[in-house]
Structure formats: C-alpha cells, structure tokens
C-alpha cells in the first residue's frame, strides 16, 4: 500500500465511521462524509462519534465534513456506507465530484427493495464505471468491536482480482485483515442473507427458546443462504467463508447486531412499527425480507426460515410458533440436505471451503488460497 492514498468514506454511522478508522490506521488519507454538520464537527474536533460509537476515540488523522464535494475531492477510492435504500440517490448526488478513475467500494449489506438489485449492481447501473472498478466488503464485522480494535477479518470481492487486492491492502492493519475473492455475488448475498437468519435468531431468543433451537436455525439457515446464492451464480465455498458463515455466526450471536436486536423485540411481542421506531439505525434485514423472497421464488429456491420471518413481520404468525428449521413440504423423513446431484457437488465444496477457511485463519493467511 502507498501511504497517504486519498480515500473518501460516505456515511458516518457506526460502520462508516469504523471503516474510516480502519483505513486511517492502515495509513490512508481519509475524509469521512457525514450528512449532519454537527456530527462532522464532533468527529473532526472531539475525535468522537457519540451517537454511533460511544466511548471510542477516533484517530487524529481522520477528517470529516458535511460537504460532499470536499469529501470526494481527489479521492482515488470511495467507500460507501449509507442505508441500502438510499444508495441510488446518494450516488446521483456524488457523481459530479468523482474522479475519472475512481474505485467504488460497497460496505453495505442489503438489496434495493424496489429492484432486488445488489449494491454493486446499483453502483454499476447509476455510475459510468466498469465492474472492474467496483468492490464489496463483507465479513464478521460488528462495528463497535472493531472500533475498539478487537481483531477480525473480512473479504474484499471484485470481478477484478487486481482491484480486490488494492482495496484489501488499504483495508488491512494490525487488528483488521482483508482477504480477497472474485465472487461478488456470493460475497454480497452472504452479507444480505445472514441478516435475515439473524432476525429469526432474535425472534426465537425473544420468545425464550434456547441454544438447540438457535443452533438448528443457524445451521439450516446456512443451507438456505448457500442454495439461494448458488442459484444466482455464487460459489458455494464463499458462503462457508468469512462473508457467509463467519458473518452469520457474528450476527446471530451478538447483542450488538441490529438485526438480532430487531428480531428479539419481535419475539417479545412488539409490532414491526414499534421495532422500527425503537431502532436508532437502519436494520437491513427487515428491509430485505420481501425482495429476497421474491428473488428466491423466481429461482425456485425454498427458504422456509426467511418465509416464517416474513409471516412474523406481517403479523400472520405468532413468534412462539416459529420453527422454520422444522418446516418441510412432506411428513416423510428427509435427508438433512434436500439436494439434487448437481447440488451434491456444491455441498462437498462447501465442506472443503469451510475447512480451508479455518486453516487460513489458523496460519495467519499465509496459504496461497484465496478466501
């Protein structure tokens, strides 16, 4: 990495601010764009973001502004961390200030509700930019833990391996390690789908069900995630890596997860209106349920866990009756994984990738294999 690479981060919520910190600590010259001038001032002057990262001291080198033109001036890389449903309008506003050869990096984990499009495809559609200059980052990345410099990893994905590697070098420091792959579909859908499973886990937690129920849903949830992503062209091994299994574990088990928290409130009997009102930040899982189910139906992919989450959100299923991992179309005993011969190969690949992921983490990433 060339120290001092000029980078802009759009969005000063918990994840955008945390990622700006990651980049500064990795040696980049970072300007963070905050929509509210008072928040930009607090970040620049007090080195705090008390709304989203209470108790965290931000690095001296981090600058913030509420002016989009100043944030983007001269930026070679632009990392975007805005709510997925507002991405399109933010890109339109940013386009006049983007450098000709800029690389755009999505930090978002959602799909556009109106179109079902992944964030990288929205970027490609709105901006005059080739897919080779678009990347996405995903992984077990709970913002507050990382802001406190607790070590973790993530995956940078781009159709261009060179772009993925360049972004990964920027987004690597002593507590944050970035791996690379070229499976953008799997990486992005992993980040979206795990949110839906985390909502289900929150619901059963709020109801009072125990670890057996949650472990069953997590395990079957990974199957749903993999089947869905593979149907859209993803590699199954991606879903066994940091962007799939890793993110799923972190999001399902942590009270820091907004999706888990929203599910828990639903399980305790709050209406979806009350849950949205209580949540201070966007809960991507709630917005993604319906578009993901529409996409699944178009591909003929069964997603019983996500379907029952939808029923709870719609008020047509009592949270206490949720048992999506037990839902089948038949009362006959079934294999643990209902697959055809073509998917069987993917299942074997899934286990192989699972083992490689843990081997890679164990040896500190020295393997030549990519995540």
What features would you describe in this structure?
With 371 residues, the protein is α/β, with parallel strands linked by helices. It folds into two domains: 6-182, NAD(P)-binding Rossmann-like Domain (Rossmann fold), CATH 3.40.50; 186-362, Orthogonal Bundle (N-(1-d-carboxylethyl)-l-norvaline Dehydrogenase, domain 2), CATH 1.10.1040.10. 50% of the residues lie in helices and 10% in strands. It has 16 helices and eight strands. It has helices at residues 14-25, 37-46, 68-72, 87-94, 119-126, 143-147, 161-170, 184-207, 211-231, 236-239, 242-253, 258-267, 272-278, 284-299, 304-314, 341-362; strands spanning 6-10, 29-33, 63-65, 77-80, 103-106, 134-138, 152-157, 176-181. Strands 3-2-1-4-5-6-7-8 form an eight-stranded mixed beta sheet, sandwiched between helices. α8 (184-207) crosses α14 (284-299). The two termini are 20 Å apart.
Per the principal axes of the C-alpha atoms, what is the gross shape?
globular
The CATH superfamily title of the largest domain: NAD(P)-binding Rossmann-like Domain
- SSE ordering: EHEHEHEHEHEHEHEHHHHHHHHH
Structural class: alpha/beta
